[in-house]
Structures are given as structure tokens and as C-alpha cells.
Automatic annotation (TrEMBL):
Organism for this UniProt entry: Prunella himalayana
Pfam families the UniProt entry points to: L_HMGIC_fpl
Entry similarity comment: Belongs to the LHFP family.
Protein topology in the membrane: Multi-pass membrane protein
Keyword Transmembrane included in the entry's annotation: yes
InterPro entries assigned: LHFPL (IPR019372)
GO cellular component assignments: membrane
Localization, UniProt: Membrane
Main location: membrane
Protein name in the entry: LHPL2 protein
Amino acid sequence: MCHVIVTCRSMLWTLLSIVVAFAELIAFMSADWLIGKAKPSSSEEVDSRTGGPQEPYHPTLGIYGRCTRISHMQFSRRDTLCGPYAENFSEIASGFWQATAIFLAMGIMILCTVAFVSVFTMCVQSIMKKSIFNVCGLLQGIAGLFLILGLILYPAGWGCQKAISYCGPYASAYKLGDCSLGWAFYTAIGGTVLTFICAVFSAQAEIATSSDKVQEEIEEGKNLICLL
């Protein structure tokens, strides 16, 4: 018989698992990993809102995508254009970024799988006598290691020609040059930290759903068990 078991710790672990998976996925797909040096605007370009000249803008560069601004002469203003600069995997600007993409993708795939499975832990707490929480926690730990490897390799690609075109001639491996780090990089780091927190917290979710209070509720014949 299926018993729906909901505790504060198991629900918190489930929500964190989902948040971490989405955070890493959004960061990976974003072009805001590097914020390039300011590009001056032409004196002929006018801001449609203020009527004054356009202010300098900062193009952004991601692992496989970029955001820049293009002129639309009929409107005399600039629009932001975002999209992949690499049409296939081999066109990613650096071998280090290719490795970063592989490790991050593997970690994100694992996190998305765990996030999907975590929703069903309210009904199913074990498979083949193995706790789902413990298995998911182990997978999250492995995903965290993949994410760390990807984030360590990413700065090694700052010396590629693509990064230099955004960050200036002084950019090199682990040196930003004229660039700064964007929100996507910090989101990926925060998601990695939360991944390990989830891995540790999965043990608490397992303890909460297998506690004596839960067993007492099951023996009383309850199918829906909610505990703080």
C-alpha cells in the first residue's frame, strides 16, 4: 500500500533539489558569464527614451552564447541581440569551455533527474530495499563534483581569442582583463554549494520519513502522514 509521507525536512529537500536543478540549468544557458568592456556608442545614435546620445554598453559572453547590441538605423537606437555564437559543439571558443560544457551538462542532467525523482519520494521511499533519499543524495554529491570540475576549468579558457575580443589583450587563463564576472557564473557557484547542501540534507529527509512517529502513523492505518 502506498503511504504518502510529508515532513518538513523531506519537503525542504525536495524544493531545494528542484531549485538547484533550475538554477544550474538557467546559468548554463545564459550568456551572462562574462561582462565585456564597454563599447562606446556612435555620436549619431540617439536614445529613443531620453533623446540624448546612447550610453556605452557592455556585451556579454557565455560558454556557447553571447549578447550584444546591433543598430537599427530606421529607429536610430540599439537593440540587444542574444544567441549562440557556436552552431555546434566544436565551435565553442575554447577546449576548456568545451570541457566545462560537458561537465556542467552531466551535472545538470543528474540534478534534473534527482529533482524529478524527488517529487515522488512522498509516495515511494525505497527501491529494492535502498532508500531513495540516500541514492539521490549520492547522485547529488556526484553532480556537485562534475559542477566543480566545470567551474574550475572555465577560467582557463579566458585566454581564447573569443574572450580576448570581449575582454581586451590582457585577458588570459584565470585573468579577466577588462571583463567582469556576470550573474550566471555566481549563480552556478551558488547552485554548486546548494547541491552539496542538498546531498547532506537528503540524510535528514531519510531520517524524518523513517522516524518512529511515521511508523506509528502507518500502524494506525493512515495513508496520508504529515509531520513537522
